[in-house]
UniProtKB/TrEMBL annotation:
Biased composition (Basic and acidic residues): 280-290, 453-465, 541-554
Main location: endoplasmic reticulum
Sorted UniProt keywords: Chaperone, Disulfide bond, Endoplasmic reticulum, Membrane, Signal, Transmembrane, Transmembrane helix
InterPro entries to which the protein is assigned, alphabetical: Calret/calnex, Calret/calnex_CS, Calreticulin/calnexin_P_dom_sf, ConA-like_dom_sf
Stretches that traverse the bilayer: 507-527
Disulfide bond entries: C152-C186
SUPFAM superfamilies: Concanavalin A-like lectins/glucanases, P-domain of calnexin/calreticulin
Compartments (UniProt record): Endoplasmic reticulum membrane
Tree of life domain: Eukaryota
Name of the protein in question: Calreticulin family-domain-containing protein
Amino acid sequence: MRFNVAAAAASAALLAGGVSADDAQKVLKDESSSTAAEAATSVSPVELPTFTPTKLKAPFLEQFTDDWDSRWKPSHAKKETGPDTEEEWAYVGEWSVEEPVVYKGMEGDKGLVVKNAAAHHAISAKFPNKIDPKGKDLVVQYEVKLQNGLECGGAYLKLLRENKALHQDEFSNTTPYVIMFGPDKCGHTNKVHFIFNHKNPKTGEYEEKHLSSPPSAKIVKTTELYTLIVHPNNTYLIQQDGETVKEGSLLEDFVPSVNPEAEIDDPNDTKPEDWVDQARIPDPDAKKPEDWDEDAPYEIVDEEATMPEDWLVDEPQTIPDPEAQKPEDWDDEEDGDWIAPTVPNPKCFEVSGCGPWTKPMKKNPDYRGIWSAPLIDNPAYKGPWAPRKIANPDYYEDKTPANFEPMGAIGFEIWTMQNNILFDNIYIGHSVEDAKALADETFFKKHPVEEKLEEAEKPKVEENKPSSPNDLKFAEDPVTYIKEKVDLFVTIAKKDPVEAIKFVPEVAGGAAALLVTFIAILASLVSGGSAPAPVKKAAKDVKEKAKDAKDKAAEAVATGAEKAKEATKRNTRSQS
């Protein structure tokens, strides 16, 4: 015969609360079934889709299959930090291609992973052929999975300018790029970069153009899909998880602007000496009124004020600290006479104030301050001066900034405080439809799975849970009712047993019934010849513990009662 002590205790508690034996067994059975169902749900695996390499074609499409290292090469260059610093950084961060370790959403789907935290990483892959976006749509799409979140670091990619001298071993922060795109976060800065290098048709120099109001990145541990589409008509759009979050024009939304101003201020023009740009002046005909008293004070004594009746004139505002004690190592000859530190006088807290009373100050109704003449419009005013405009000698108009320079490689050149950033399913090409089809094969299959895994990890919120034990109803949930009431009784009883009995009488009243029922169950098990020796011993131990608990409860109640009587005596003596 197997004996479940916990079940017996719960059953006894239900019986003590006035539940019949049949109902008690039903409640316990329902509770057990619910727990088992929850356990089964929590451990049931989510069915994962299986990765299958795409058959789509593109100028560059990377899914990090087994031959990935024939295309991607880590950089061993030194990072240039500028002439003002002596520090020299090397790209020591390691890379790996592996499946995700957080919220794995697809079986066999590997990605390029940043392996080191607080390190500089750089890796690149050359395109089979240069990509020239002139006159075509340019689509840049890739997945980012921040498996450890992102507190400070980048997860953006760079499309590198076509250059025959481009060596992957030397890829660094100074390698010329055409487009930089992707999330970047550090502290309060959180954005999706879109930067392109624009060539000045007059000087041949390149200048970075930054999206003026970039969207925010999603800092989550599930896979996120970032897409940039630039059309030949100079419009662009940025998508996250297939939804457009930003769109606009290359000619309007970037700083510095693509095209400079046609006219500029003449640097040789100067403001004439007699130019008057003061719009208003003091009225020269105004005079100070004869009754204007500039010496009148801002505040005066309130002669009508009277001292509050509870003001304690003879009480000092501070008193020596009665709890302060002279330090044992204090030497009167060397340190002087010891004086206790002062503390605010507690008597002053309960009244309007202490010490000498003086009449308060009030605002002077006759105060007018220093007189000044009122302002009038300046008759000589000519308006704000501005230098004349001249034609901008550096002016040009590029009507097709979407015709980016040819691109020869892709690279990740980042620094991050978090590792395990995963990149996957990179598409660089000209087909919006193919990029969408790739996302359908990969991202939109695994992302819902990852979201389910993420949701399963979140702590479950109990719906319709009563805000207070007093709101519980025995008929609705007997087990929770008894548990919450007992917990409340124990919590109050630790401080004041008498108050616990008054506040939760149903527990105090049911305690005796609980002990009697519990002991009866154990006694029947012990007396029954079929119970094995270990069960009898366990029952005997539980019986003794139950008796001990009963004695302690009685003692706690008695002690609480004595405390209550003693408090009553003290109150009586203090009032006499």
